[in-house]
Specification:
749 residues, alpha+beta, Beta-Lactamase, Heat Shock Protein 90, 4 domains, five-stranded antiparallel beta sheet, 21 helices, 22 strands
Amino acid sequence: MIISKLFKKIFFYILIMFFVMVVMSTLYSTFILRKDMINEYISKAHAIANSISMSLPEVFLNADASVIQSIIDQYLQVEGVGYVLVHDDKGNILAHTFVPFVPQIMKYHHDNIHNIQTSDSYSFIDIDNKRYIDISRPILAGKACILHIGMKMDVINKKIFLSLLKIQICNLMIFVLTIFIIYKLINKLSFPLLHLTDYAHKLSRKEFDANVQIETDDEIGDLARTMKNMANELKRYIEELYREKEFFTVTLKSIADGVITTDKNRVIQFVNRQAEKMLALDDDSIKGNIFSDVVNLSTEVNKSLVEQAINKAQIVEIEQTVLKAHNGNQIPVSCRVAPIYDRTSHVLGAVAILRDISDDLHREIERTKAEKLDALGILAGGIAHDFNNRLTVIMNLVELIRRTATLPHQVEKRLEGIYKTALKARDLAKQLLTFARGGAPIKEVSTLQNLIKDVTEFVLAGSNIIYELNLPDDLWLVEIDESQIAQVFENLLVNAKQAMPGGGTIIINAKNFEYRKNNSLLLPLGKYVRISIMDTGPGIPEENLTKIFDPYFTTKTGGSGLGLATVYSIIKKHDGLIDVTSRVGQGTCFTIYLPATEKQPEQKVQSSIYHVDQDSSLRILVMDDEEEILEVVSDTLEFLGHTCMTARDGQEMLHIYQKAMKRGEVFDAVIMDMTVPGGMGGKEAIQKLLQIDPDAVAIASSGYSHDDVIANYKKYGFKAVLNKPYTMDELARILNVIRGGGDGLTALE
């Protein structure tokens, strides 16, 4: 017969539990039985004492020793009584049952009585190595004598032992019966458990198709069915694990970086598809070869890369090097080699990651371009600010002279030439401001179809260039500065036209583009409108492709080198992207991405004014730090029929405005210069002005601003923007719009 391990364990635990229970119950039973038996025998002694004391009280009163002796002798036959002793109140023994004489301890006990005992008491004493309970009873309140009855503890202990023996026999019978029942139950359970154990061993050997013949409807049957289900699940999981391993291998092969693993001897064990592509070799030509024999990097440590990683158990990295492929291509890469460890932290080999950093280098080029443009912007902003102030004076003075004086034809012609030159200088200043930090685009929601069509027709009119426009009607709306974006298309089309003096074709395509995944495009995910401008010109040499957006780079005689730099800066400030591809002899393609918007376009306000009558005259306050501008703007406003006061900074402007309010002479508009060196400029002054008069009409004016006030004028409380240099007509138009109670920026930027 096979005794299961489960039965042995349960038997062992029951044995321990039984032992503990027996010990505990024995101790407890002994304590209770001893207490009860002592109380019982004390009560028995009290009954005997009552019988003795109540039989012949006069005998005890007279201290008749012989009669007392005859009375107490008969109680020695009572079970448990060990002795009876009587003594008087002075301690003199009158009678006793000790043979042949009273033990010394009893004499000492009674010799130490000093007080008359008036109530029952008991104590434990040892006589001849036997223990007794000495119960004392005063007869006639202690006036006659004291009766002592000794109850044998041996008798009490014997009765306790017999009682405990019966209890333990009962416990033993219960234990044996329990073991028998448990044995039967365990034996009934052990057979299916042994089958389950055997089945579990089969599962450990991956015999997942093995069967277990247990069909009972109890927990063991449930366990058998559960194990079978677990085996099926485990089989499925292992199959999935193999599939995942295969998937992991496929994933490694499909990853965008080149992955190569080697053993401790630097022999290649695995290579993914990207690495095959980068090396220009197939899997069979790579595996089994030494790493350095296949991977040729233009670095001195090429041969020791994997060796260092394995021998020193550390990661080896090269931030930038060139991988020489076996087809002759050279690819800029970063290389990272890390050791591979087993479960015991021993190095098994190494894994090398080859990353194509062509896009990273492209981003670095873009960043360098941006830094160059920023550097140019610092210079351009300062120049443009002063330049625009001077142009404002020149343009308005020329217009005042032409409109207020009758001049000879020759002088009129020369003044017109000056004016046209100033307008061209203004365009140049706008280009400079494109690079400046403050040259932020003043955006509005717009469509691109008409803008592209108008610019194309204007630039290519009368040329020998054939053009094709593919502009869908459902192009998404964009938020742009129309004048700046028009300049972008104009510059690109002019360049294309100049590149094809003998004629050619320009194709412009526009389409909606939703950027959903992150690849080489340096753009956030989202919706864009993509415009491509392709020409059939001679193309751009590869060595010049990375330079064409640099400021002052040009290959044209007499070119400024600012055209494409301006295009690049404008697109960047519109949160877009411009890219170029070109092949010598085939042509060039510029691709522009502009963010789409869900906003709707605002209605533009159109206006045309010149002189006004007296009833329409406005009171204008002009604030500028340039004395020449104050004079020419004041003269221009007076020529247009308005009243003008001037202030040289924000503090003076606020003072004049408050004084006018107290007199009830409110200004219809305040024109503020944004930049006042050493004084309060328009950005700070507008806040204080609106505290004085929340209904004040303020117009922002600047040749250059270091913040975004001009681009976001409404946010700061301005009603309109008047960019320097502005003409008399532009000034008149904006005042006419203000007189009508609207915001006049849309038509006047």
